[in-house]
């Protein structure tokens, strides 16, 4: 069954990590459960009764933020909601990627369907309709401080739901929201009390990015183990340091997984066997970038596990302010503050940058004849005439340097807003935006290590690598020729980046090792 025939059902319970990826990246349509529609309708009746009360209720019959003390008469409340969305749709800069916007929309919809926001079910149905039709509101890079939710990004989405602003249709064509909705047979929503606020008060942009980052890093940390094993083998390192009993002396769970992956990659390697019992071997201990790979990759895995837990907790949340409690109270709260998500977005950027840094160090060892144990300088065919992979390492180094800058945490910054009412913010959206760049950079760095290690392993002939690393080399050789005179290197690097991003290098290894941890 194709993704398009298998909709994601959004109900009162949380959507899964997998459903976020399906909707965001693979265009899965969305349908609301009957239970969620009933819950929204029941809560909405309560909100409508409060709207008739002379007692001001924040978000229902008052202004917003620093203007919360102003009571809004009945005849002005539709204008109030429309004005809120228009004024908050103040984003600027480049367009945000389609998958991020779709994730944001799904997660806002997930909160709406809990019945805790007080919106009418027709509003949620309209969000589902836009997602299913492939209509993506245009959201801009700058505008969210990660507190009071991702206000500007969410407001740009809400603007499209009321038939204003700009979108891209299912074919990626930029159109007015009014035209795109009409073409899809979707009626724009006229917002009523409480609804405008409910559409923009959430951590959905940063959370959607976090969920996709967890998905990507799970795969990339496997790839880091694969490339580390290729480098250990190609640099005549030992596999003995990855033994389970040695790793058990430091019972960090991620480290054990990484060491096991590397050991399985190196199993039955003639290259490793060729120097395992060589009494004349001058290598007492391998360099840290080889020997300590499980410590770094494992620490990254443990950080990822924590980030996954935080993301799961946030997926189970109903983030709105004010919120309608189970017993019918409409209460202000601080659950929109993005700190928990912002912190782990920063944590992941730090560990991804460090994994990339270690990968670059392994690559550099292949290119230095003083440290590569018999390989030609820069792995060149005719050193001096040819430069081999010299500048591939420069490219890696440039990326790693950028990743180190991006690893500086966004969440330690705060700029007060809204006339000092919102005097501490999370900057979680900024953390999310830079993490996407870090993940792209890590993919590229690991791809260059794989490309270089594959060349190094080929140059060890007549010795052959392990069955698992041989499978990875074979996958690379389907796109990039083996050692020889200098060729245009950029397309070869990009081809392996594509293999890394698609997961092909890992699946090639797993065809031999079985599923890696």
From TrEMBL:
GO molecular function: histidine ammonia-lyase activity
Pathway(s) per entry: Amino-acid degradation; L-histidine degradation into L-glutamate; N-formimidoyl-L-glutamate from L-histidine: step 1/3
One GO term describing the cellular component: cytoplasm
UniProt keywords, alphabetically: Histidine metabolism, Lyase
Name of a matching Pfam family: Lyase_aromatic
Gene3D superfamilies: Fumarase/aspartase (Central domain), Fumarase/aspartase (N-terminal domain)
EC nos: 4.3.1.3
Major location (coarse): cytoplasm
Reaction catalysis annotation: L-histidine = trans-urocanate + NH4(+)
Tree of life domain: Bacteria
GO BP annotations listed: L-histidine catabolic process to glutamate and formamide; L-histidine catabolic process to glutamate and formate
Family: Belongs to the PAL/histidase family.
Protein name as annotated: Histidine ammonia-lyase
Species for this entry: Gordonia asplenii
Taxonomic lineage of the native organism: Bacteria, Bacillati, Actinomycetota, Actinomycetes, Mycobacteriales
């Amino acid at each position: 069954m194709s993704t398009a025939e298998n909709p994601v059902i959004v109900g009162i319970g949380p959507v899964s990590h997998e459903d976020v990826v399906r909707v965001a990246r693979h265009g899965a349509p969305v349908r609301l459960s009957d239970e969620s529609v009933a819950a929204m309708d029941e809560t909405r009746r309560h909100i409508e009764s409060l709207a008739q009360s002379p007692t001001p209720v924040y978000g229902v019959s008052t202004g917003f933020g620093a203007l919360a003390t102003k009571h809004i008469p009945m005849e002005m409340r539709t204008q109030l909601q429309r004005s809120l969305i228009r004024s908050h749709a103040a984003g600027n800069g480049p367009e945000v990627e389609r998958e991020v916007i779709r994730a944001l929309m799904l997660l806002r919809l997930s909160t709406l369907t809990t019945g805790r926001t007080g919106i009418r079910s027709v509003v949620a149905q309209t969000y589902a309709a836009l997602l299913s039709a492939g209509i993506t509101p245009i959201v801009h890079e700058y505008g969210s401080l990660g507190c009071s939710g991702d206000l500007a990004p969410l407001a740009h989405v809400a603007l499209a739901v009321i038939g204003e602003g700009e979108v891209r249709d299912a074919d990626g064509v930029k159109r007015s929201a009014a035209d795109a909705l009409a073409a899809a047979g979707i009626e724009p929503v006229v917002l009523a009390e409480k609804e405008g606020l409910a559409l923009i008060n959430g951590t959905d942009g940063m959370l959607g990015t976090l969920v996709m980052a967890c998905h990507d890093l799970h795969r990339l940390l496997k790839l880091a183990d694969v490339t580390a094993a290729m480098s250990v083998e190609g640099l005549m390192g030992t596999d003995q340091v990855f033994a389970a009993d040695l790793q058990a002396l430091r019972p960090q769970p991620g480290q054990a997984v990484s060491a096991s992956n590397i050991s399985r990659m190196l199993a039955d390697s003639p290259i490793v066997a060729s120097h395992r019992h060589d009494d004349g071997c001058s290598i007492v201990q391998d360099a840290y970038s080889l020997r300590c790979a499980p410590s770094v990759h494992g620490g990254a895995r443990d950080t990822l596990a924590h980030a996954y837990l935080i993301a799961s907790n946030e997926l189970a949340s109903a983030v709105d302010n004010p919120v309608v409690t189970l017993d019918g109270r409409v209460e202000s709260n601080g659950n929109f503050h993005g700190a928990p998500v912002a912190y782990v977005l920063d944590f992941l950027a730090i560990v991804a940058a460090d994994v990339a840094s270690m990968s670059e160090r392994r690559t550099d060892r292949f290119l230095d004849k003083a440290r590569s144990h018999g390989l030609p300088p820069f792995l060149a065919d005719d050193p001096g005439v040819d430069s081999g992979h010299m500048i591939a390492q420069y490219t890696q180094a440039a990326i790693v340097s950028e990743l180190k800058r991006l690893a500086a945490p966004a969440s330690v910054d705060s700029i007060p807003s809204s006339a000092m009412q919102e005097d501490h913010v999370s900057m979680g959206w900024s953390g999310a935006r830079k993490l996407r760049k870090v993940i792209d950079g890590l993919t590229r760095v690991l791809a260059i290590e794989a490309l270089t290690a594959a060349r190094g392993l080929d140059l060890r002939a007549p010795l052959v690598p392990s069955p698992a690393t041989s499978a990875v080399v074979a996958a690379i050789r389907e796109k990039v020729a083996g050692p020889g005179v200098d060729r245009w290197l950029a397309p070869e690097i990009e081809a392996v980046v594509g293999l890394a991003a698609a997961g092909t290098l890992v699946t090639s290894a797993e065809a031999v090792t079985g599923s890696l941890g």
